[in-house]
Amino acid sequence: MAEHTVRDIVEYYKKKKGYNEQPNWDTFHFKRHVRIALDLWNMANIDWKDAINYTADKLDPVKMPWTLETVFKQYPDYLKIKKSDKVKKLEELIANEKA
Asked: Which of 19, 38, 39 is closest to 28 using CA atoms?
């Protein structure tokens, strides 16, 4: 598994938001996003991309604005809906036993 950096998080955010087409975006905005990207990495670790996708999928359809700070704040909600494969298999086993 490749190691991701804070820059990867910010670049992925830019792509999701459509900011990657703005040539001077990094000059004016990158530094402002570094702290929250680092916080997201520390909290979500390898889940950061899924957390960004979760927030985008939840808020984009209803035309609500979101930032990396929103992703950070929504992370606990993302964890509630995310289940590991082991948990899903256990739930299936329990459901099959009841049937």
From this structure: 19
The type of residue at 84 is S
74, HSE (Cβ side, Cα atoms, 13 Å): 22
What is the Cα 73 distance to its own chain's centre? 10
How many angstroms separate the Cα of 3 from the Cα of each of 59, 75, 97?
A: 28, 21, 41
pLDDT in tens, 28-55: 999 999 999 999 999 988 889 999 999 9
Contacts of 4 (CB under 8 A, 6+ apart): 41, 46, 48
Q: Where are the domains of the chain?
A: 6-98
